[in-house]
Amino acid sequence: DYEKEIIVKIQDLQLTTEEMKRMDNAEEKRVELHLHTGMSSMDGINSFKEYAEKAKQWGHKAMAITDHGVVQAYPEAMDCADESFKVIYGMEGYLINDTVNIVHNCENIVLDSDFVVFDLETTGLNPKNDHIIEIGAVKISNRKVIDSFSTFVHTDRKLPAKIIELTSITDDMLIGQPEIGEALPAFLDFAKGSVLVAHNAKFDLAFIREKAKELSIENYPLSNLDTLELSKALIKDVKNHRLNTLTKKLGISLENHHRAVDDASATAQLFIILLNKLREREIYNLSKLNELLKEDIDIVKQPYYHINILVKNYTGLKNLYNLVSDSHINNFYKKPRLLKSNLNNFRKGLILGTACEAGELYRAIIGGYSHEKIEDIVDYYDFLEIQPLNNNMFLVNNERLKSVIELQDINKMIIKLGEKSGKPVVATGDVHFLEPEDEIYRRIIMSGQGYEDAEEQAPLYFKTTDEMLDDFSYLGQEKAYEVVVKNTNYIAELIEPIIPIPKGTFPPIMEGSDHELRNICFDNAKSIYGENLPAIVKSRLNRELDSIIGNGYSVMYMIAQKLVKKSNEDGYLVGSRGSVGSSFAATMAGITEV
Questions:
Q1: Between the ranges 109-123, 230-244, 380-394, where is the mean pLDDT highest?
Q2: 31, 45, 167, 450: which could form a disulfide with 492 (CB 3.0–4.6 Å)?
């Protein structure tokens, strides 16, 4: 009654072992190479210690730690390592390709050349699976509009509701319209001899390349310019560089945004303004734009990709620390960004992986990049990642991909790219929490950040070897074993055992601090007690100074002494406290008056 609470009084206590909900019973265990702790801000759930305890119970010999942009969990992780359990230190970074991509293949192109500014409307975002439903274009010569092109494109596919809402194009409007086999050649004939121009050109060009490939069309225009990237260099006082934002800023008419003919016309007017701005800056040769305007684009605000970075040795550890510092101090915009040029300079001792669906390779495949470009991306990395299908099911739910089969095909394509390039392909879990039921905590965190799909949590829990093998069973038993077990262990064996923080205290060094501290204390004591110090004063001061200096703390006292002295001299009264400020030596050093 007195406590006003329910009180449990223990009369008998018997210890029991925790019930193991899941066990890894595989004869040969996998290694998790992609894992987030609670230090992945507002994303990961569990501590590394919790993951490590589970991994050790399961008999795993190693585990990576790859938090988003930071290495803050390293101190905890290093305490989990032992002779039978290796901690692989790493980080999932936010990579920016800090090259400028305004123009491509624009040799001998000047301001008054011929350009075709175009825009496409499509049934979705995937060039391989989605269809073009409208093409609009405007031809410019001598910085003046001279011609236009516009056509709907018939498709047998029923238009998604969100596309109808966005474009106002309906299924009925496409009945009887030209097929893509007629419409695309007509457009390419219209654009013959001209530079193709678009706003966010890589999207539209990916569709042109893919559909041209399907129709076996060759020798279509390859020179192109992106007004999105060009506007970033030439127009600064806008919150973003979307077409509707720029047209409003510049007073350009855009009545039916997301209709190809209207967007192309508005983009053409924008392009003419941009060409005139180039003329004002006396820039006439467009082939030089990437080089000349690089300094005008805020690289840090460019789109980023995820990259998985693993530390191989102490050289790599120091290089990663350099990258982390640079990304936070010099290249922070909402997230700490890694410039590719900096990564190239500090790459030694690091092992680079392609990360998740937000990685450069996965995005290139979905975006319909050319095979040559995809192979260039593969060449940059040391290993390629594939992840369980359920990790990326949101791509099917939001209709970026049509089915689970396409998710499988992307993973199979990555495996083929690995086989062709000789790069190991590893299956990673992109772990964000420990147990399947822990997803509720991440759901709460993501809901608090306003994610609309927070309720549809992917199963990003730490999986056993058999669970991962089941996830990749569609590859066949042999290939699943290779990516889940063999290759993950191979990467782990490349990693040298290291500790991220050397053992020891490593106090700062200040030459002569021992002698200087002793002189300051005794000179001050003599000014108070006289030249011949009383025995009790001398004894007490020697006792404290011998302990301070003998344990290597004189430099700490001298730092405090200099700070307090300088502050007092400048008219700011200050005194230290705590362990430094509670001794007689500190009083005699002028650190404190107590």
A1: 380-394
A2: 31
Question: pLDDT by residue (tens digit) across 283-302?
Answer: 988 888 888 888 888 888 88
pLDDT at 161: 87
Residue among 117, 159, 361 at smallest CA distance from 261: 117
Cα separation of 360 and 354, whole Å?
Answer: 7
Beta-strand pair 350-353/114-122 = unpaired
CA–CA–CA angle 351, 352, 354 (5° rounding): 150
Beta strands in 125-270 (DSSP E): 132-141, 144-152, 195-198, 224-226
Q: Which amino acid is at 2?
A: Y
Alpha carbon distance 111, 88 (integer Å): 53
- Bridge partner residues of 211 (DSSP): none
In the set 258, 306, 371, 515, the catalytic residue is: 258
Report residue 248 as tokens: 């409003």
DSSP output for 306-317: EEEEEE-SHHHH
Q: Rounded distance, CA 585 to CA 581, Å?
A: 9
Phi and psi of 110, rounded to 5°?
Answer: -120, 180
pLDDT category of residue 257 using cuts at 50, 70 and 90: confident
Is the separation of the CB atoms in 184 and 217 below 8 Å?
Answer: yes
d(CA 400, CA 86): 39
- E-only strand ranges, 346-503: 350-353, 384-386, 425-427
pTM value is 0.78
**CA quadruple 449, 450, 451, 457: dihedral sign:** positive
Per-residue pLDDT of 562-587, as tens digits, reads 999 999 999 998 876 665 556 899 99
Contact (CB, 8 A) for 213 and 160? no
Rounded CA separation 261/252 (Å): 14
Tell me if 591 sits within 8 A of 557, measured CB to CB.
yes
CA–CA dist 173, 133 (Å, integer): 10
Q: Give the Cα separation of 467 and 438 in Å (integer).
A: 17
Contact indicator for 462, 434 with CB cutoff of 8 Å: yes
Task: Give me the helices (H) in 497-534, please.
Answer: 513-529
Instruction: Give the model's pLDDT for residue 369.
Output: 84
User: Strands 86-96 and 335-339, how do they pair?
Assistant: parallel
Let me know if 432 is a catalytic residue. no
The per-residue pLDDT for 592 is 85
Report in angstroms the alpha-carbon separations of 445 from 74, 262, 385, 505: 23, 41, 26, 37
- Decide: 508 and 555 in contact? Cβ < 8 Å: yes
Identify the three-state secondary structure at position 137.
strand
Structure tokens at 568: 């007092």
Spatial separation of the C-alpha atoms in residues 547 and 554, rounded to whole Å: 9
